[in-house]
Amino acid sequence: MGNALFIVWRESVEAILVVSILYAWIRARGDATVTLKHLWAGVAGGVGLAAVLAVVMLGVQSQLAGNALEAFQAGIVFIAAILITQMVLWMRKHGRHMKRELEAGMARASSTGGVAAAVVAAIAVGREGAETVLFLYGLGLEQSGGALVQMFIGAGLGFALAVATAWLIQRGSRILPSRTFFRITEIVLFMLAAALLVSGAERLINMGWLPPLYEPLWDTSALLSEGSTLGNIAAAFAGYRSQPSLMAALVWFGYWAVVLVLTRRAVAMPAASTQGAR
């Protein structure tokens, strides 16, 4: 429930801020070429794209069984983890210029008519919606019965919290600066991506497609068992395992090593560009 709440909260905040930027740009422009109806049509189109993706994924899953189903689900988990990482790195690199880039895209699209501007809005919103669908699907694979219902309740609460958060960022930027919000949440997103990768690797190990190499690599179940509430939260949010295989540990540590390199590169690139421009 908690991880679904967090994912929907963070993704919805991004989507709401994108719509807010486009809304303000259209209101400031004040002509009949691009109107708010184009924006809302684009938003509806973006939500529709995400819904179609969800239907396609569930439809494909219903046609698969056995190892084919396990492989499909493991593939979606890996894609979700890669998308989370890519999204965070993209926001770190482009976040401060997102408003300017969105407005520039709308300005270019508006020269060819309101429909093109609606497509820009649909792509911007659809990207966030598609990512949310993939993330929830990856999380839902680990849930069933009442836990699955709680996951959807968490998703609903996450959206409600996102509306309040976006309002707070817009109205009270001194209280909750967007930069602070995204810096804090990106760490949790990296942890969630690591958890998804470990989960996907364990699926492949269970299928015999990956060797466990050695297990258990260690045993900390006496200190923090995955059956406890805290251990369950650590497993879901950070990929903690009390008795991990060597392969799972390599995947977890390897992911953080790659993230460290990519994060430093994402920070260094704008500085290098600035120096080059001088």
Automatic annotation (TrEMBL):
The chain crosses the membrane at residues 6-26, 38-59, 71-89, 109-127, 147-169, 181-201, 246-263. One of its GO terms (cellular component) is high-affinity iron permease complex. Its main location: membrane. It is found in: Membrane. Keywords: Membrane, Transmembrane, Transmembrane helix. GO terms for molecular function: ferrous iron transmembrane transporter activity. It holds the Pfam family FTR1. The keyword Membrane applies. The keyword Transmembrane applies. It is a multi-pass membrane protein. InterPro entries: FTR1/Fip1/EfeU (IPR004923). PANTHER family: IRON TRANSPORTER FTH1, PLASMA MEMBRANE IRON PERMEASE. Belongs to the oxidase-dependent Fe transporter (OFeT) (TC 9.A.10.1) family. This is FTR1 family iron permease.
